[in-house]
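Narrative of activities, Objective 1.

The group set out to show that a structural description can be obtained from nothing but a protein's sequence at a throughput compatible with the screening campaign. Below is one input-output pair from the validation batch, recorded exactly as produced.
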Amino acid sequence: MPAAKKVRKVAKLDDGIGGGGSRYDAVFIDVDRTLLWVGLDVEGYVEDLASYSRNGGLTVEKARGPMWESLRRHIKENIEYRTHEGLADFKRRNAERTAGELGIEAPAEVLTEVADRRISFNPYPESVAVLRRLKALGLKLYVVSNWDILLAEVLGALGWMQYFDGIVASALLGVEKPDPRIFDEALRISGVRRERVIHVGNDPVADIQGAAVAGIDTVLVDREGDIEAPEGTFVIPDLTGLLEIVRG
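Output recorded for this entry:
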C-alpha cells in the first residue's frame, strides 16, 4: 500500500474529464452516508397513523425516538433475512413493534406500508456528478454496502443502476463490513487486482479498517471533519475530491 496521503481540500469539477490514465481500475463505494443519507418523515408518519392511536395522543415528539430505533433495528438485524419473504416478515414485525410502543392499533399491512413510505433516500449534492465522471473515466464501479437484500431496488429508484457494474450487499452475501470476505467477493466479481482498486466510505471501521485488512486502498469521506482513521489512504470532505485521487 502506498504511503498515506491526506486530501482535505475539495477537488474542482471541471467540464471535461481530462486525458491520461487512472491510478485505479475500479472503485468500490459504500452507500449510506457516502452516496446518500437516510431520512425519516416523522411528521408524515404521525399524520398517517394518528387516527389509529388508542388514546389520540400520538405526536411527533413521541414518535421520533421509536421511529429511529426501528430504523437502527432494521440496520442491525436485516442481514439475518436473505429472502424477500423473510425480510417482509421482519419488516412487518418491526413496524408492529414500533406501533405498539406508540399505542397505535392498525392492520399490519397499513403499518408496514406507512413505515416504508416514510423512509427517504437522499443523495448528497455531488453524488450523481461524481458517479457520472467516474464512469466517463472508464472506471468500473461496484457498490459494497452493509444493506438489506433490496439495495438494488433503492439504487434503481434513484436511477443509479446505470453507473454500477455490480452490487455486493451484506444481506445477500451473509457477511458485513468490516469482514474482509465482503471485499474479497467484490474483487472476485470485478476481476480487478486488489492493488488497482480503491474503496470509498464513511465508516472508519467498516469501510476503512475492513478494506485495509483486505489489502485495498481507501478513501474516508469525512463530511464533518471529525473522524480519526489512521489506516485511511486518503481523506476527503465530500465525493468531489475522489476524482483527483483516481486520476493520480
